Amino acid sequence: SAIAVIVVAAGSGTRLGHAEPKAFVPLGPGTVLSVAVDSVLAMRETPHLVLVVPVDRVESTRSSFAPIAEAAGAELVVVAGGATRQESVAGGLAVLPASVDTVLVHDAARALAPALLFDEVVGAVRARRRGIVPALDVVDTVKRVSDDGRVLETVDRSALRAVQTPQGFPRASLDHAYATAHEEFTDDAALVASAGLVVDAVPGDVRAFKITVPADLHRAEQLVAERAA
Ligand code: C5P
């Protein structure tokens, strides 16, 4: 029973204010993507690694990550992404070997998600045989607001969670959900839930935050430096 981790890294990430696509922005000794891959390759059980990158980066990504994957004993496949995150994940799913029965989907932008979080998601998928998302309590007070900015109501935050990646699924569930999806979702758990399948939340990790704006990159640099120290 093999695991695959699909790392989606094909977004442009314009909010970061860099010329490069977000996953290829320098971070620590490498890039956002290489820091993300370091955690994947540090998992307890070495997974198949699928990197989904912009079409013009497929060759260079393959050559720079092949030695790292080989050293870790991981099969590596690099494919071109699509116009949306969902298309990019679908591209990764399409190249999984038949032996894979547990699939984790991870945003490269959540580069500091620790290996232990991946291991915990894998363990929960196998134990419960359903989709698993890491999630954190919402600490801010959340309001519903009208289009013109009027505060309409305060939402009860005790029932809300902010979800992260890696999100894990039995392979058959994810394949089925992607084959039947007719709209765009912002994460895989929403897509799987729309196919009528159950998804559970497990405790997330603050380090799995998404690098989105320059301040996030700064925080990521600090965490990488602390980790190296
Ligand atoms: O844009 P956002 O931060 O929500 O993207 C989440 C993740 O999905 C990023 O790691 C990004 O590279 C990836 N993505 C992708 N293909 C797209 C859009 C986003 O692989 N077309």
UniProtKB/TrEMBL annotation:
Q: Which cofactors does this gene product need?
A: a divalent metal cation
- Which keywords does the record carry? Isoprene biosynthesis, Lyase, Metal-binding, Multifunctional enzyme, Nucleotidyltransferase, Transferase
The annotated site for Transition state stabilizer falls at: 15, 22
- One function term, GO molecular function aspect: metal ion binding
This entry's Enzyme Commission designation comes to 2.7.7.60, 4.6.1.12
The pathway it acts in is: Isoprenoid biosynthesis; isopentenyl diphosphate biosynthesis via DXP pathway; isopentenyl diphosphate from 1-deoxy-D-xylulose 5-phosphate: step 2/6; Isoprenoid biosynthesis; isopentenyl diphosphate biosynthesis via DXP pathway; isopentenyl diphosphate from 1-deoxy-D-xylulose 5-phosphate: step 4/6
What are the site positions for Positions MEP for the nucleophilic attack?
157, 210
Q: Which reaction does it catalyse?
A: 4-CDP-2-C-methyl-D-erythritol 2-phosphate = 2-C-methyl-D-erythritol 2,4-cyclic diphosphate + CMP; 2-C-methyl-D-erythritol 4-phosphate + CTP + H(+) = 4-CDP-2-C-methyl-D-erythritol + diphosphate
The answer on whether this UniProt entry bears the keyword Nucleotidyltransferase reads yes
Q: Per the record, which residues fall in region 2-C-methyl-D-erythritol 4-phosphate cytidylyltransferase?
A: 1-229
* One of the GO BP terms on file: terpenoid biosynthetic process
Kindly indicate whether the keyword Nucleotide-binding belongs to this entry. no
Q: Which family does it belong to?
A: Belongs to the IspF family. In the N-terminal section; belongs to the IspD/TarI cytidylyltransferase family. IspD subfamily.
* Protein function: Bifunctional enzyme that catalyzes the formation of 4-diphosphocytidyl-2-C-methyl-D-erythritol from CTP and 2-C-methyl-D-erythritol 4-phosphate (MEP) (IspD), and catalyzes the conversion of 4-diphosphocytidyl-2-C-methyl-D-erythritol 2-phosphate (CDP-ME2P) to 2-C-methyl-D-erythritol 2,4-cyclodiphosphate (ME-CPP) with a corresponding release of cytidine 5-monophosphate (CMP) (IspF).
Q: What is this protein called?
A: Bifunctional enzyme IspD/IspF
> From which organism does this entry originate?
Agromyces hippuratus
